Amino acid sequence: METAALVAPVTALEFLRDAFLLTGEGPVLTVYSLKPRPKASASLSVLQHYRIHGIRPRNPAAVPAQSSATGDYEENKDGLSSTSEPNFYDLAVFGGKAVRLVRLHTDLKNGQHLCWEILGPLMELQDWALDVRWLSGVRQSLLCVAVAHNSALLLDVITGNALVQRSCLEGCLLYSALLLVHESWTDTVLVGGTVFNQLVLWKPGGGGDKSSDSEQKAPVERRLLGHSGVIFSISYLQEKGLLASASDDRSIRVWGVGALGGPGGKCGDLNPACLMVLYGHQARVFSVRLSSGKAFSAGEDGCCLVWDWAGGGKVVRTLKGHRAGGVRALAVSEGTGDEERWVATGGADGGLRLWMLEGNEERKERIEEAVTEKLTDLKFPGQGLPKEVCIAGEGDGSWSQSKFMVCTDQGIVYQYSNGQWEMVWQGSPEFHSYCVMETITVNVKDSTVKVHLCAVGNLTGSIQVFPISHPQCGILLTGGLGKIHSLIWQEVKESLYLLASGTDGLVHRWCIDVKLDENCSLALIVNPRPPFLLPPCAKRWLTAAVCLHSASWELLWVCGDRRGSLLLFQEAGKQEQKILDGIRMDEGLLTGRKQGVEAEENGSRKKVGDPTLHALSCLFGVHGKQGVTSVCEYQGLLYSSGRDGCVRVFRVCPTPLEKLEEKSNGKSVENKGGLQLEVLRVQRACKGMEWLERVLILEHEIPVEEEEEAEFGQECENHFRTKKLNLAEKMEAAEEEKEEGSLRREEKKMENEGREARFVILGFHAVHFVVWDPVKQERLLAVPCGGGHRSWSLWPSNKGAWPGYGALVFIKQGAVLASQPPREDPSWVGKAGRSGGWGLREGIHGRGISCVYRLGRIRGIMNDIQIKSTGNETEIKGRDGFNDEAREVDRDEGHWEIVVTGGEDTSLSILAVHPNSGSIRVLSVITDHISSVRTVTAVTGPEGGSENQTQSLSALLVSAGGRAQMQCYRLLIGWDWRRLAPSCQVIQVASHRLDAQWERRRNRHKTVKMDPETRYMSAVMVDERTDFSLLALACSDGALRMFSVSEVKREINLLWETFYHQRCVLSVAACSLEDGKGNRYNLMFSAATDGKIAVWDLTEASSLSSGTSSSAPTPPTPCLDIPAHQSGVNALAVKAEKLGQQEGGCLVTIASGGDDGQLTVSKIRVQYPEDGNTGGSRGLSQISEPLTSLQTQFQLPNQLHVHLHSQSHIPLAHAAPLTALKLLSPDLVVSTSSDQRVSLWRVGTAGISHIGALCSHVADAAGLAVWEGRPIEEGEDKKRKTRFESEQETAIWRGKGNQRGLQMTCETAEGETGGRFNKDKETADGTEGREPVEALSETGGPVCKISDGKGGETAGERGNQTDTDSEGKTESEGNMETGFKASCDSTKKREKTGWVLVCGQGIQLLRVRNAELWTTRGERDKEKVNHRVTLQEKSTEVE
User: Is residue 862 over pLDDT 50?
Assistant: First the structure.
């Protein structure tokens, strides 16, 4: 097995001269080049199964010229030397109990050429390494290492020996440590954060005291008290003599300690004082970094705070970009003075974000948006109280050039510009006491001049429309005789519409053109349009509207009213006639329509028929009684917000034929066009945020113009355009070959149109105006405005997008306030400094992932185009130069695996995984669950057929978890041809909660209410029908419940429940059988905390559930009970295989894993009713004999005959409870556990045999997904290159025999990592004269293995523990291996691969090769040479 993709918490970050960023994710070391644009360049796994916690670059000046950093090793073949501008960096990478040296080769003139070099073996310590530093004054390669038990080592990286080891007199456990080193060991000072909430400072080298012995313990020189929690991070600023500490008590303390370290090992002031205590984090603080004038801290709350410690300890900036789980790593580049400074954060969600902070920005003591309480009063001096405020013009796009319009209760409109207020327009007395105002910026017709229009309505139905620059050119419109409730501007192509909602539900409309007359003065030309009539309701006025233009439907209007309804209107009546009659309108009708319009233009009230337009479709009260606040459209989908705390994603679609016929037969035939509104899904904001105002599309979702690409360098721009051109040429060539090319192009366009975009939600949360990101679950902007019920306007406002920054102007208590001083632009406007930063890598789940389900895979691109993913960017490269053979090899390059994960953060993530590159994209995040998601299952569409059918995928997804909540969605996975990446559309089908169903019961007072804490533990689809699906759920209250899920009716109904297990049901599985006559049978398997597995025959239950009878069907009883474990069964996996015609029936393999760490494989024999009792329970083991009487009492005639055939156990399959297992094939089991092992097992006729294991980089593994990949051609893997390059390919280091001082220890991989199958064995080092070569580290196997390939059988290998107690190689294994060897030549060219996806505290995708499935462990396990760090017996004096 080998790693193909990994997303794990980022635990280490380090900058290299502002040009490169180094990251540690699990054992994988990755380098990002920052110029001209940040992107991932190279990755390497360096620490085996250890997690990287620190990266320490060596000063290039200390590297000996013309030699490697490790002295006696071979010189670099490239002849690299140390110069003033080095082209390589030596790094010490540490984590856990391991340290390793690597070298990064780079050309500073061209950052594209980056590669890794391994400088030596893995050095394993006896204690956890907390900090590592290079000694700077010696030409040798010496490392100081601080370890967890308050000790320090001096490590010689050439020999791998600890020259000196010294402990502190206070031998307590450390949570953090900081080494301050100089030229020699005697100058070293160690600052440790103890488990007793103290900082202790001591000198491991004795400070030059010759009498000090390494065996004597060093005393504590200084002790800093004050924290009330353990200390996680320490930072020291030498220029100011300041020490900062971050603690579990949510505080950062800054201490004045004076000079530490340096020549002689100074210990600073005798009485160091705490200068300030900084509180601002909402949870534990994990990291702190000190710089000149600023301090940076990151914590569990997911925030990185920038503190101005020189100015009193204020928070001047909050950097947010990670989901739940917090920020685990923080790095700050070495910017000085006015230079730019990079800040990087790595989250527990696996995300990586980068910010650029400018020097002059840091000097400004400005409070950032999320924590500010400062507001700017614009000092409104006008008459009366301000009632409405709007942003009229944004000038050149800057906040300082924006203009504000304010209308008072005296009917006067004022303008704020350049810090001055001026009166623009004064209305008549009928505009007093009440008015509504809206503004818009439009282009003058046949000109490039822009003009700002303002509309003001009053209580008598009058509407004044005027240009702000020329108010005397205004006109007065009449919208009925009553109150104007709302005004809405809408720009449609080159037309401008004004909508005014009056009395009696009438919405008056005008089309307004702005022109220049002969005198070059502005003139407004008004053309009335037929009004809309809203449905009768209590609050009958319009609150939102958007116009849709389509070639098929002409102009459509989607509106929202105060009652919370969404309405659909159609501008003209042409399309209805086309759809219903199928006949084009003749010229007479068209001419009559034009005459009617001309009559209205002349102001005459003569009408051709009734001009009032009625709603084609109405979703009544969909947003509750508080009303719809906004409606917007993007890429063919509509987004509405309301005061019910929800955003609804919906679309306009044709009415189904059945519904259209029903309407035509009824009294109402208003919807002649056959169009309706359909809600796809509902997105809630955060808890307590009910008053939503608007939806804005995230700016990175909007296509970037080519001019904007120039900022990333001319070279990148040309490369990007070339790639687009090559792709366009290839697509055009393909289109010309097919006559249906235009149709295909239209389909691609329609696919892109239906893609849901990432958006943010604007609204009021308590007293704050908030911009909320529903995917990241965080505030992007918060302004303390006092809450809702006020007029407000957000800048920038004319794009309908959220660029990552903004400013708010609003009215509060008669004053006009702004969140940012109008004369100064927001300090975080820079693209790299926006609130979200640069997303180098997108996070997935901030907390643990509890379940995963693979939906299938899609093919995105043609065979001659390759996808190359780097971070979150995707590059497309043409492969014109490759021959046909190479193109056939790369057929799989464009395939993406689609998986769904559910986590403890109550969210569902739909992911696209590209196995060949290791890229993982988040397609969508669903946050409808109110508690953790425990299980997911799905019904996917057929994938077979031609290659083109794999470009889309449809799945009915069901997720369930805490609070007995279940959600059902329809997922439409397609290919986005514009972004050349998969896309996902989520359609919400139904939801269900047990407590809600209990509330709807008629006689609920006679029944016991269900436990509100009931959790759904496991779910499986039992049967799939055309109109519904059967879903079985295992529940924590001891029940096994069966539901029917109907997508047509959009409902989930409980069919029956049974409490057969009488205890918590942990897992459930199902399989479908088919006999020779085509009859289908359904079996279900359930297991609880008693360790027993119940087998259910649901064939008759499935047929009964298809009916719609009022009486609930009777729950069935199990047909077989299998004792499998001593405690709870956490996982079940089932696969069926048909037997021969002579034997009849089928054999079902049931693999189970439990809390007892045991793996059990049970095989049951299933006889169909027509087969009789042939075969019986032949081969039944002794354990299953007592079950014969139990199984006979359950069975009924004309049912399946189920017998236990055999059962095998591995009592200690894992060192911890098994959490998940799957069957890759009927004879191959994959299991995982919280011991971070992924194991492969082969099931034979004689029992279970262990194939191999891998040490996973995912902690708390809880979910598994397995599938078989397509056959791989010979040599294909050699041409593939993933993000996880093996050390065997990239290692340049070559060792020589009898290396000086190097002590080799040969151990098995399992023995070193505490495996359960091998005992520790040490053998002599017989590798003299041989050449060690680096091996894969992902497998947890050898770090160095002998190049001659001779590997013996692993010592201490434990025999298989089965009920048959077989010894040695089983008969089936021997036959398998013999057959494999005999047919080696035939299988050499094509091999099958398996894929395993492990989920827990991250995601890891593993590739299982066919050779691994056939090879025994003794043949594969090679001797391992690891370097154990030992203290030399001879004392070594170090200067």
Answer: no
For the ranges 926-940, 1025-1039, 1416-1430, which has the lowest average pLDDT? 1416-1430
Minimum mean pLDDT range among 197-206, 683-692, 801-810, 1278-1287 = 1278-1287
Please state, in angstroms and as integers, the Cα–Cα distance from residue 1331 to each residue in 75, 158, 1353, following that order: 15, 17, 21
Distance separating alpha carbons of residues 104 and 113, to the nearest angstrom:
10
- Please name the residues in contact with 975: beta carbons below 8 A apart, sequence gap of 6 or more: 751, 858, 860, 861, 951, 952, 981, 982, 983
User: pLDDT of 1185-1214, one tens digit each?
Assistant: 334 333 334 444 567 888 898 899 999 999
Contacts 24+ apart (CB under 8 A), 601-609: 601/527, 601/528
Strands 691-698 and 801-802: parallel
Rounded Cα–Cα distance for residues 1346 and 492 (Å): 73
- Amino acid identity, position 1211: P
Tell me: pLDDT of 1416 over 90. Answer: no
Q: Where does residue 614 rank: exposed (0-12), middle (13-18), buried (19+ CB within 10 A)? A: middle
Cβ-contact 904, 930 below 8 angstroms? no
User: 10-16 and 20-25 as β-strands: parallel, antiparallel, unpaired?
Assistant: antiparallel
For residues 146 and 44, give the distance between their C-alpha atoms in angstroms, rounded to a whole number: 25
The amino acid at 79: G
Report the candidate in 652, 451, 697 with the shortest Cα–Cα distance to residue 559: 652
Burial class (CB in 10 A: 0-12, 13-18, 19+), 158: buried
Residues 6+ apart with CB under 8 A from 396: none
Residue with tokens 């240009």, as numbered in its chain: 467
254 closest CA partner among 222, 196, 283, 295:
295
519: phi > 0 → left, psi -120 to 50 → alpha, else beta; which?
alpha
**pLDDT tens per residue, range 323-374:** 777 899 999 988 755 567 899 999 998 889 988 887 654 444 443 333 345 7
Output the six-digit token pair for 111.
């950052």
Pairing relation of β-strands 1424-1428 and 123-124?
parallel
Q: Where are the alpha helices (DSSP H) in 1240-1299?
A: 1276-1279, 1287-1290
62 and 134 Cβ atoms separated by less than 8 Å: yes
CA 876 → CA 218, 721, 818, 866, distances in Å? 60, 11, 45, 6
Number of alpha carbons in the 13 Å side-chain half-sphere of residue 887: 13
Distance between CA 761 and CA 647 in Å, rounded?
8
How far is residue 7's CA from residue 846's CA, in Å, rounded to a whole number?
Answer: 11
